Structures are given as C-alpha cells and as structure tokens.
C-alpha cells in the first residue's frame, strides 16, 4: 500500500512517499523526474514520523547521516549508484567519474549521471553531493540553486 504526506522544509514543500510503511520517495516541489502523482497513494501523515524527525534534525544541523529504512526501486545499476551516494560523507562531494570508478566501471560516468538524476529519495540519498570532474555544479533535479544551498549548508558556509 502506498501513501504520502507533505512536509515543510527550507526548500519549500517536500513530498514524502512510502510503500508498505517504508520510505520510497522524497520529492522537492520542483523536480525534473517526479513520478506521476497517482502513484503516491492516499494522503497519510501517520507513517512518516521518523522521516520527519530526521529531516528536521538534518535541517537544524544536528544530523549528518540518515538511518531510515529505504525502499529504492530501480534497476540494479541505479540501486548501485544510489548506494554509492549514501556512502558520500556529509559535507563532502564526489564526481560522477569517481562514482563510476567505485562501481568498477570507470567509463560509466554518463550512466552514473542518469541514475543520479533518477534518485527517488532526494536529500536522504544525497545526490546533491555529486559534482562535475572540474568541481562545477552540474545537474540537480531540484535545481542548481538548491544544490548549491545544500552543499553550502553541509560545508558550514550557510544556515537555513
């Protein structure tokens, strides 16, 4: 059974989605690859307590690593990329090429970028921590301004 809720954040509303009580989506209100609204299921804010608490602690600067159970639906390659994203420490970045290397396929940086863009659980699976090989900000489903703000926040340069 799928359900969703909407919570406030420094980025505006975030839609949280769950399947059988497990978080399977976190979407900024502006997002390039959002699923169709009908797959979110009914509105139900009773199953998201832990996710809401951890997000609030993250935005307060008190949480550096999420410990939520996640359901990451995607291809085996996408799930591998998303697992690598979860290994990038708070406040640090990696390039698409570095992630491809970590996956054992150094020529897959474009495929890593595509999988990164399809990440269904923004912020918690920190796709914002991936940058271009030259250090530039490249692509973010929620917009480059949000990516910059998240990186600045995690690096201590700005608070929400």
From TrEMBL:
The active site is at residue 127. CDD domains: ATase (cd06445). One of its GO terms (molecular function) is methylated-DNA-[protein]-cysteine S-methyltransferase activity. It is found in: Cytoplasm. It is an enzyme of class 2 (transferase). It holds the Pfam family Methyltransf_1N. Its EC number is 2.1.1.63. Keywords: Cytoplasm, DNA damage, DNA repair, Methyltransferase, Transferase. It comes from the Bacteria. GO terms for cellular component: cytoplasm. Involved in the cellular defense against the biological effects of O6-methylguanine (O6-MeG) and O4-methylthymine (O4-MeT) in DNA. Repairs the methylated nucleobase in DNA by stoichiometrically transferring the methyl group to a cysteine residue in the enzyme. This is a suicide reaction: the enzyme is irreversibly inactivated. This enzyme catalyzes only one turnover and therefore is not strictly catalytic. According to one definition, an enzyme is a biocatalyst that acts repeatedly and over many reaction cycles. Belongs to the MGMT family. This is Methylated-DNA--protein-cysteine methyltransferase. It comes from Streptomyces spongiae.
């Amino acid at each position: 059974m799928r359900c969703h809720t909407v919570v406030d954040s420094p980025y505006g509303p975030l839609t949280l989605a769950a399947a059988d009580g497990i978080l399977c989506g976190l979407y900024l209100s502006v997002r390039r690859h959002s699923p169709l609204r009908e797959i979110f299921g009914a509105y139900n804010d009773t199953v998201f307590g832990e996710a809401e608490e951890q997000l609030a602690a993250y935005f307060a600067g008190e949480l550096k690593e999420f410990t939520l159970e996640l359901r990451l639906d995607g291809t085996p390659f996408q799930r591998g990329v998303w697992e690598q994203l979860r290994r990038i420490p708070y406040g640090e970045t990696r390039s698409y090429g570095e992630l491809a290397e970590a996956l054992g396929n150094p020529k897959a940086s474009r495929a890593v970028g595509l999988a990164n863009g399809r990440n269904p659980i923004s912020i918690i699976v920190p796709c914002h921590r991936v940058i271009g090989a030259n250090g530039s900000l490249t692509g973010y489903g929620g917009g480059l301004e949000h990516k910059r703000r998240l990186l600045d926040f995690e690096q201590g340069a700005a608070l929400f």
